[in-house]
Amino acid sequence: MAAEKLSKSTVAERALRLGDDEGLEAVTIRRLAKELGVTPMALYWHFKNKDELLLGIVDHAFAGVRADRAATDPWQHQLRAMVRTLVSVMRAHPILPVLLMSVDKEEAESFSRADNDALALLTQAGFTVEEAYWAASYLLQGVIGLVAWQPGCPARVPPEEAAEWRRQRRLKLERLPADRFPMLVAFADTFQREPDLDRYFAFGVDLLMSAIEATARSASAPTP
Length: 224
Hints:
By secondary structure, the protein is mainly alpha-helical. Helix content is 63%, strand content 0%.
């Protein structure tokens, strides 16, 4: 790719895909320049060093996580839409949880904008600004947990070995003493099939949002 055709978005997108495929340690200016077919100097026009590059990746990834529905929509609908978008972004880019722990994410403009949008919606719900920040952090960590612990084979298991991995997992649970672990033995049967990830994530978003909505109702209830 010619250096003059590069943009911040192009560089960040390729860096994001490189990190998803090979891990955060693979994302370097030199390696990225090789991937893009340019010299490292061409990338320095956009990112002065690796720290700026990593922040650029976060900024690019969170560009679509925003409260952009109709202003008249209830806060619950707008916030749920943001959480769903965040789930989609995290599912598409497994590098993000590690990356968010590696940089000062609040220096990424799109992350700060998403955070600000969430705080605005949560204060509409009746939370104080401080409580809203706690709630927004809970939602972010909840989504990271949903993605990190999604059911099914670990990422290291090749797709062609997935059925065997599930079989071994099922057998391991079925061997547990049924009198001591009856529910785990019953759970073993779920490994007969591939997990329904869309249903899992929809269920998870419902769990996260139900906690926020119930707490908002409690916080806004009049004191007797």
